[in-house]
Amino acid sequence: MRPAATSVTSIAGASPSDRRLVILAFGPSGSIRDHGPLSAGRRRGDSFFAYTRPAAHTRIPATRLRDAFEGRRVDRRIPHSALSRFRMSPYRVSLLALAIASALIASAASAQSREDCAEDAPACADAGVLDTIQVTATKRPESTLEVSAATTIATRAELGEAALQTPMDALHGEVGTFVQQTTPGQGVVIVRGLKGSEVLHLVDGFRLNNAIFRNAPNQYIALVDGQSLDRIEVVRGPSSTLYGGDAMGGVVQMLTPALRYSDAGWRWSGGLRAIAASADDSLIGRAEAAGGGERVAFSLGATSQEVNDLRVGGGDERPQSGFTARSGDFKVGAKPVDGHEFVLSVQYAEQPRTPRHDALVPGFGQTNPENALFFFEPQQRRFAQLLWRIDAANALFDSGELRVGRQFIVDDRRTRAFGTPNLEVERNRDATTGYVGQFGKQLGERHHLSYGFEVYRDTVDSSRIRTNVNTGVTTVRAPRFPDGSWMKSVALYVADDWRVGRFDVNAGLRYSRFDVKIPDSVDVPGVRLDPDDLTGNIGLSVELTEPLHFVANLGRGFRAPNIFDLGIFGVRPGNRYSEPNPNLKPESVTSVDAGLKYGGERMSGEIIAFRSRYQDKITSVLTGDVRDGALVVQNRNVTRQDLWGVEAGARYRLPDPDIELYATATYTRGDERSEGAEYAADRIPPLYGKLGARWKPNARLGLEAYGYYATEQTRLSPRDLVDPRINPNGTGGWATLNLRADWRIFEGLGVAVRAENLADKRYREHGSGLDEPGRNFIVTIDYRF
């Protein structure tokens, strides 16, 4: 998992003799800004981080950057995955990973040579590695080592190496991210025990979460093309100050590649990628092209996926587990004058007919499937956004962004319950319009002020028709969501980053107001809610030694009930029937975390402990009624959830031979309280992670052995116990052994071969709707020009 090579250097024109250090801040556009001369900073090996006086921002194209300061390169080495168990139990593997991560963080090392960053990458970033650049935690480029927030980053190199069917596939085994998959072609990431609408998902700064996003596993993240992404950034912990509602467990931001401008005439680039896998006989193809001159640039791409039924461990083939997906993206930018850039982005994704596997195949405790027919038919996402980036300092801000966007989600379904003649066809639409502004201002040498606003509006259209396939009689049924309902939100925020010596303190406040309207109907009473809230956070980073930082964060999150929470109506999986509840109130979470981050020359890592209290949690509970043979459930604010855990990850580079070792481990425990009873929280992941070793004998060849693991999970909630996706006796522990080889045949052409789950072990990620692939051989061919 390594980015391609380039150099990050001192600014052209500054001689090495005057030892003038600068910050190279990678902006979303891909260019690099000179933030002025050094006023207080330090140089760490061949990398440098400095605090600067206010200065006019001068864009410096990457093509003008050559050798590193005093001729030395600034590199970033990237871990890939993790070693397997061989004959060790999953529990021992996980303890070993946690011990390795902690030991590596505590050790000191020096003289690591780093690999160059990609010239077109907006940051040298890698999953689980500190000393990289992120933009999500603070809404501006900063080193992950120096920000107090806990972050996980999957780079473009990682995304290119992985056979991504959904974006979340890139986060398997990473620090603090657990991936759950109800059916192929879908998937969600669980962050600190929270999922769905409890975690905010962004695409290029625009909310993917909408008014029908449910607080459970869902399919909407799969409507973002993972093959088109530049990187994924995860902020672990409440981030409501900067991002508002839904950022309770954290933020997952999916970022597409920046446009590439050129001062040396028009430049063309492009690529072709093909990925084939044996376990599901799948084929993924991606084609892309880009061009750029001094003032104008563009990029476009298209992806196609054909996935057949999955062969799981032991050789069984699972029916109704294949799907097809198509997507396309286009981006064009212009810089009419210096300091101003306009970028128009358009994205489209569709899964025309995806089966819900767990509803079509009997699960735990079932002799018959819930449905004879269940297809998401189709699932679509259409998205357009216009961005105005301002990089011209004035009295109000040094830099800023204004964006307006519109997202349209189609969530249509065709279902027929097992043993009935009633075919139901649903038509569900959510249209989101958003207006976002964010600005930054350096105040003196020690303060950086960030402030902004957000305005979003969602409208929902929903209908359902039932047809008796025996008689042909058609009737109109109550829709899944109240037709004509809408939801608005308005927010203002301000955050300050204050540096004093070895201390970096950040704090912020956000005011949010929501307006939710559900019209009167025969099935659902009219609802009008207008909750508001003031949320805040404070974070601290202390440089204990040059490579070692102590970090701590205290934050509060807030989430207003959306249209799904208030108005969901009708048949639900697990033989349930949902009735709406117009009396819901907002949820809140208070979270604290603390730990260590280490960014040495040969070793880097982190270990973070967290604790969260989630109050007035909206939970689906049994009412005691039965309707059409199904158990009636209703969303209510009846539970309090306490979550705590430890997240750790580290890597260590041997000086000779060129071998890199890495490990991750994440543990979460969740307890829920309701009406005097206490029990385990829903779908809490077990202890999980990865181990690995990577050897690069020369510039063209890389070899890797890695493994993923998880211990058993027997702490099940009452809902888990009746969920057909989860074994009522608990989900068993497991570990896999995997091998990878990549070969750069010549400049621009590379081939990678992976052998996964070599033991052909049958296992399941906790909470998922089907088992994971059995022995799987994956070939990736990537051509760049």
* CATH class bucket of the domain at 254-784: Mainly Beta
Number of strands: 45
Query: Looking at CATH, which topology of the domain at 254-784 would you report?
Result: Maltoporin, Chain A
Helix content: under 10%
Shape: globular
Radius of gyration: 25 Å
CATH superfamily of the domain at 254-784: TonB-dependent receptor, beta-barrel domain
Largest sheet: 22 strands, antiparallel, barrel
- Uncertain segments are 1-88, 102-129
Q: Which second-level CATH architecture of the domain at 254-784 applies?
A: Beta Barrel
Tell me the structural class. Answer: mainly beta
Helical region count?
6
Terminal residue distance: 20 Å
Question: Averaging pLDDT over every residue, what do you get?
Answer: 84
β-strand amount: over 45%
